[in-house]
Amino acid sequence: VSTQSTWDKILVGRCKNSSSAMSTGILLLGNAGVGKSFLLNCMYGGTPFHSAASHAAVTTKLECVKHQTENWLLMNLPGLLDGNPHSTAQNRREIERAFQMTHTCIVAFCFRRSRWQVSD
């Protein structure tokens, strides 16, 4: 009989090579298009996460990769705000799931300095 809950199986199933309970989660929070995936790729030393130069959201679901040498679970999250209320609500749920996956998290906020503000 497995002691792992169905919820845990779903979350770990969505994350590649993760043993999330014993790893420190690395979470980068920020709006869509600020470069969170790019920074995580730099931390990993490769390109496990898709990233692109875009003001629009590139990441829409939680993605996780265990770091090659450190005991880190790199967690690629969708942006906090992306201009669409429906996707913003979905993004919030994905971010909440990330916090539930590990006992310890390091959180950094990412932002882009700009003189221009995008508006609808």
Question: Describe it for me?
Answer:
It contains three helices and four strands. The longest helix has 17 residues, at 85-101. The protein starts with 5 loop residues before the first helix and ends in an 11-residue tail after the last strand. It is globular, with a radius of gyration of 15 Å. By secondary structure, it is an alpha/beta fold. A four-stranded mixed β-sheet has the order 2-3-1-4, with helices on both faces. A hairpin with a 5-residue loop joins strand 2 (63-66) and strand 3 (72-76).
Please tell me how large the radius of gyration is. 15 Å
Element pattern in H and E:
HEHEEHE
Point out poorly predicted stretches. Answer: 1-14
Strand order of the largest sheet: 2-3-1-4
Into which percentage range does the β-strand content fall? 15-25%
Please report the number of helical segments: 3
| Residues in helices, as a percent range | 25-40%
Taken from the alpha-carbon principal axes, the silhouette is globular
Find the count of extended strands (DSSP E, 2+ residues).
4
Mean pLDDT: 78
Question: Span between N and C termini?
Answer: 53 Å
Question: Which structural class do you get from the secondary structure elements?
Answer: alpha/beta
Largest sheet: 4 strands, mixed
